[in-house]
Write a structure and sequence with these properties.
Length: 561
Amino acid sequence: GKTGINFAAGMSGGIAYIYDPQDSFSQKGRCNLGLVEIEPVQDQQEGDSLRDMIEQHLEATGFLVAKGVLDAWSKSLLAFKRVMPVDYKRYLLEQASSPPARMTAMTSQPTSADMEDMVAGVSSDSKLQGVGSKSTRRSKPGQLSKADASGSSKDSSSKLPLNKLRGFIEYERNPDAYRKVEDRLQDWGEVNGDGHTADERKRQAARCMDCGTPFCQTYTGCPISNLIPEFNELVFRDQWKAALERLLSTNNFPEFTGRVCPAPCEGGCVAGLVEDPVTIKNIEYAIIERGFKEGWVVPRVPQERTGKQVKIVGSGPAGLAAADQLNQMGHSVTVFERADRPGGLLMYGIPNMKLAKDKVDRRVQLLMAEGIRFECKANVGQGALTLGSLCASSDAVLLATGATVPRKLEVPGHGLEGVHMAMDFLKQNTQALLRTGWGCAGPTGDFISAKGANVVVIGGGDTGTDCIATSIRHGCNSIVNLELLPEPPVERDGSNPWPEWPRVYRVDYGHHEGRHTFGEDPRQFCVMTKKFIGDAMGRVCGIETVAVSYTHLTLPTKRIV
């Protein structure tokens, strides 16, 4: 469509291309020429780059005007105008001409693509040699991720300088690889691989668009408002220590969120509107692990104490984060945990395959070195350890307990032997592994074993996936996952617009392991459990189910005056 009046007013950076077949854009004074100049698009390489952008636009939108422009490209190119700030152009030319080696590569009138490449350290010659690879196809959420399907994600071997300004166009999303499924099923180690090289991590950071409004860190993205574009930029600049400082300014435990967070930031990534989102979660984890490796993460002991005593009940994610914050303020903090080890859900609710317990222990040891006290096997509310006694001996008490009472499936037969709650199953497995080690032999002693059993996991989500993966490692005979809700679409539908969390079909690590072991995905959708069937010994031997369907009801609207 036509531009509005006063176009480019206050424009201080970037380049705009205007399709002006009637030659009315500059003639009718619609452009504010206070800061910019209007020029034709004459360079062949710039024209090719412009056509490539229009082709991507047509593929993504099906816009008929774009099709008409491309069908008559030789004529259409003559109708394009380049709008560029004068000072921005001068700056780019100065940056491009400063290294002597680049002077011979410059033309008398550099193109916009050339100039942006020069700022990023890419000459026209290197661009023609194929820096990066364009990604015009978004990977389907329902497919196996490249990392999980192959067991390895290849790092680019190119050593050419990266194009940061066009990184989201030129470089494909390349998530960290999972270990090969046949290898990881033989042990209880993390499914994640060793991660990318520093060069490939930098390439992935180059895909960040540095948006004016970064939805990745708004209410639809990161719930703790991580400064995502900032630490992405610092990783791209190889300023890892500064990136760590930015990350820790909002996130107490990136080593946990970088492994188990569902990454709503990536769902809100602006690049994800037309391409795959930036690998934010992988970059976050790489930053904190680099910090530990380099010795940058050290105990921060408060220089002064307030004399205030704070007691925290519960050592899960909330309790640990609160303890960290309060301790850094100078208060004396004691954390009470009912289990035998600190960590709560991090220790016993999430299996080692997703979050290694040595990572949890590492953080707890760091908090202890900073002055936080932990009292385990302390069941507040029983015996002499009451809430009243905590209040009497402290200035404040914080309750950070989890919901350990399960929501049981109240159908006939739910009390039969062999019907277990997910958290009991996962917790006992981790406890047994901590007693016996993480070797190939697996857990021993008192725990719920799925070995030789025909397992049915009722309920989807992360917990269901963890139960699938744990059962397969035990050596179950078969596994089925019953999901009450319908199968999600492969891509967003109209009821789930960006930047909301994408409710789409995904293949998680446990589903992939089920496919590998039994030849098919274990999930069955739109299934409701009606009854557990028991044998003569009171043990569950079957499940009565019914297929359900969902209908979207259109409720009558009510006019409010």
